[in-house]
Amino acid sequence: MRRATARFTLALAVLVALSATPSSAVGLVAATPFQPSVHPLPGSARVQVRQAGAWHPGCPVPLSQLRLLSVSYVGFDGQAHTGQLIVNRSVAAPLGRVFAKLYALHFPIRHMSLADRYGPATSRPTDGDVSASFECRQAAPSPCVGGKGTGSWSEHAFGEAVDLNPLENPYVGCGQSRDPATRPYFNRSRLRPGMVTPAVVRAFRSIGWGWGGSWVGSTKDYMHFSASGH
Predict the structure, then answer these.
(1) Where in the chain are the domains?
(2) Percentage helix, strand, coil for the chain under 3-state DSSP, each rounded to 5
(3) pTM of the model
(4) Coil, helix or strand for 168?
(5) Pick from 164, 169, 41: which is nearest to 112 by CA?
(6) Are strands 171-172 and 37-40 parallel, antiparallel or unpaired?
(7) Which bin fits 146, alpha (ψ -120 to 50), beta or left (φ > 0)?
């Protein structure tokens, strides 16, 4: 009888301990090592970026200069996932080190796959909260100014910029953004999951990259990290 009681007490203690553990920490990342890889763009990825209009003849870098970077990341569900970015070959390895730091920080990322960014428009996430890098386009003007382009290549057009969680980290200027859904995140003092933190900024600064959230003036691009800082 005493042994049965002891076993029951032990089982109850285990259940209590498990119930006290945050669900995001159960089965989480500690048991899943960070796994990066860098490869030349496979044929399927080349087709995707062309069909999405993210690359075309006349872009400042050829497809041969781009790489497929695969990294582990923590999702908003608290679990480990594998994501992909298309980046310039010159920054692929350093960015792998950055994402290793983000993984260690358990920084949550919403969507980060090639299909999320370059797949058919009807199949992309409806929230638009996609973390991505390469897109052959002009730099976007400040929301203060409006319009679609500045006449200069974006750092994304070189594969030397990364946008993290655009919903939680909007591009703002003069108190407005292009996406009304981002308004709850204008207040950067109220930290919520997915918002860029000082630790995230330090992770990118460790490879010499700058953050759009530190730009001088009212225009801030909180999602944006780049090799040039612009």
Answers:
(1) 34-226
(2) 35, 20, 45
(3) 0.86
(4) coil
(5) 164
(6) unpaired
(7) left
- The token duo for 120 is 């058919």
CB atoms within 10 A of CB 51: 12
Q: Residues 41, 63: contact at Cβ < 8 Å?
A: yes
**140 conformational bin, left if phi > 0, alpha if psi -120 to 50, beta if neither:** beta
H helices of 76-230, where?
A: 92-105, 114-118, 198-205
Q: Strand order in 37-40's β-sheet? A: 37-40, 66-74, 80-88
Q: Residue 15: which residues within 8 A CB-CB, separation 6 or more?
A: none
Look up residue 169 and give its amino acid. Answer: N
DSSP of 169-200, one letter per residue?
S-EEBTTB-S-GGGGGGS-TTS--TTS--HHH
- Are 222 and 188 in contact, with CB atoms under 8 Å apart? yes
Backbone angles phi, psi at 11, to 5 degrees: -60, -40
Backbone phi, then psi, for 73, in 5-degree steps? -150, 160
- Taking only the tens place, the pLDDT of each residue in 179-229 is 999 999 999 999 999 999 999 999 999 999 999 999 999 999 999 999 999
Backbone angles phi, psi at 57, to 5 degrees: -55, 135
